[in-house]
């Protein structure tokens, strides 16, 4: 009957619209016209992203609340990070894109040489669920600023944010140059069969390997923004009240689900015992006597992760916290002391509000502990000693190194953000995003006469 044939036609249209090969072909067609290359187009897209973020901030914040229980401060934090990234990029883009002159050896003179930043083509962005807005759009700022077309695959584990991105992005950005494809493993697997000119993936290392293997088939370069266990070293002589506040803030924000959250504390000498009371006090200052009632604390993403985290609460000796509620997706901010390096909580990245303290006798032992393990995404240290800072800088390897704070390095727009070894490949933010999403083309020009 006519009803069902109309339905069928509609279904076919929808299937065609989301066929990965068609979406990529459309984006490639747009790139090939050259319309994404001019500075004016790039600035217009960044301006449109800014308008989207300001006009729809309430919508995005509601989605972040639905997905992760993010309160206003946390949710707006994702929006404001992006506004800063857009503004910093708009302010400098022309200067970043200018060809850079290079010196020419005497044998080739007279001649001119320069480095030109060429857009790559079609970029695939695969985003995770923990900061589902920030981590979807921050790489998009760089990919568009570098003159590419973009296919975004948001995380299916943050469905409200994924739906908001799919609905709102096409209303603001160039529809022929930016596409959103929602979905889980089957859809992502289908996308990864296509040929892209760059794949930018944020998430865990197991999937990072799948992404890199798929990219290898087309010789597509990848950026992998991964995670790992980021230590916080605390040395005697550091102000332990301030140290505990800053570690607690970085650790328990978003219920511990932050890629650069301090994963565990390496407490040197007698700092371990003193930190127990200071961390307990810091948690109460942040979330009150009952964190379950705090609007800013946040939820664990799903029951599976809740179960995984609850199983870690028995390791070591409980200092504070320990409560959990699977239905409310709640794990209380928890500090564990006397934790053995072999305990399960010291196995994989915790990615939740559980903070083990490992006591080590001295800085040598702390450095050895770090270097025996995978290179972390971030290393934090709280120390009053310049010599310690120098030793940690020279004797350890990590994506970022921060003294006296946690997490904040990613909000310094002129610093690169990325991992090393198991914590990732490549970097972005600000001008580093332009480098990531461009080809640095060597141009040599010698007159014929
Ligand atoms: P996730 O489960 O949302 O996965 C990330 C993306 O990979 C999603 O879009 C998902 O659809 C896709 N995916 C999942 N399985 C896949 C498969 N088999 N094939 C193809 N695609 C697949 O997020 P996650 O990995 O649980 O995120 C947590 C991890 O990400 C942590 O390790 C964290 O440290 C890391 N992380 C790193 C950064 C960073 O900037 N370096 C930021 C956030 C999170």
Protein model, in words:
It is a single chain. The chain has 449 residues and is α/β, with parallel strands linked by helices. It has helices spanning 2-18, 20-33, 39-55, 57-68, 72-97, 134-145, 159-172, 185-192, 205-217, 240-252, 271-287, 303-310, 363-371, 386-395, 430-436; strands at residues 100-102, 112-119, 122-126, 149-153, 178-180, 198-202, 222-225, 230-234, 262-268, 317-320, 324-325, 330-331, 334-337, 354-360, 378-382, 400-403, 424-425, 438-445. Strand 11 and strand 12 (330-331) form a beta hairpin. The mean pLDDT is 96. The structure holds nicotinamide-adenine-dinucleotide. Nicotinamide-adenine-dinucleotide is lined by residues 126-130, 135, 153, 155-157, 184-185, 188-189, 202-204, 207, 210, 225-227, 259, 349, 351, 377, 419, 424. Residues 126-130, 135, 153, 155-157, 184-185, 188-189, 202-204, 207, 210, 225-227, 259, 349, 351, 377, 419, 424 line the site of nicotinamide-adenine-dinucleotide (NAD).
């Amino acid at each position: 009957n006519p009803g069902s044939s109309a339905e069928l036609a509609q279904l076919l249209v929808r299937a065609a619209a989301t066929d990965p090969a068609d979406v990529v072909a459309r984006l490639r067609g747009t790139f090939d016209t050259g319309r994404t290359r001019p500075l004016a187009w790039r600035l217009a897209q960044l301006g449109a992203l800014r308008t989207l973020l300001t006009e729809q901030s309430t919508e995005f914040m509601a989605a972040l609340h639905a997905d992760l229980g993010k309160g206003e401060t946390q949710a707006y934090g994702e929006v404001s990070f992006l506004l800063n990234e857009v503004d910093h990029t708009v302010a400098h883009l022309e200067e970043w894109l200018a060809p850079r002159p290079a010196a020419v050896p005497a044998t080739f003179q007279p001649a001119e040489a320069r480095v030109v930043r060429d857009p790559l083509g079609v970029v695939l962005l695969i985003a995770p669920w923990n900061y589902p807005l920030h981590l979807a759009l921050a790489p998009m700022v760089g990919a568009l600023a570098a003159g590419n077309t973009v296919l975004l695959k948001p995380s299916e584990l943050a469905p409200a944010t994924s739906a908001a991105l799919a609905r709102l992005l096409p209303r603001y950005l160039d529809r022929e140059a930016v596409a959103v494809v929602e979905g889980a493993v089957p859809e992502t697997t289908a996308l990864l069969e296509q040929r892209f000119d760059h794949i930018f993936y944020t998430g865990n290392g197991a999937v990072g390997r799948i992404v890199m293997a798929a990219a290898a088939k087309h010789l597509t370069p990848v950026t992998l923004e991964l995670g790992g266990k980021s230590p916080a070293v605390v040395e005697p002589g550091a102000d332990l009240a301030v140290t505990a506040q800053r570690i607690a803030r970085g650790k328990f924000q978003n219920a511990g689900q932050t890629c650069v959250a301090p994963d565990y504390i390496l407490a040197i000498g007698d700092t371990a015992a003193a930190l127990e009371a200071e961390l307990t006090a810091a948690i109460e200052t942040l979330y009150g006597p009952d964190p379950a009632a705090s609007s800013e604390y946040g939820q664990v993403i799903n029951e599976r992760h809740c179960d995984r985290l609850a199983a870690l609460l028995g390791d070591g000796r409980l200092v504070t916290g320990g409560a959990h509620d699977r239905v409310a997706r709640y794990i209380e901010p928890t500090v564990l002391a006397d934790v053995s390096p072999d305990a399960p909580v010291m196995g994989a990245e915790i990615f939740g509000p559980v903070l083990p303290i490992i006591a080590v006798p001295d800085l040598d032992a702390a450095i050895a502990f770090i270097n025996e393990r995978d290179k972390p995404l971030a290393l934090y240290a709280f120390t009053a000693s310049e010599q310690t800072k120098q030793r940690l800088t020279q004797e350890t390897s990590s994506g970022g190194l921060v003294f006296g704070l946690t997490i904040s390095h990613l909000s310094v727009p002129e610093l690169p953000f990325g991992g090393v070894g198991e914590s990732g490949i490549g970097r972005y933010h600000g001008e580093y995003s332009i480098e990531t999403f461009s080809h640095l083309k060597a141009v040599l020009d010698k007159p014929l006469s």
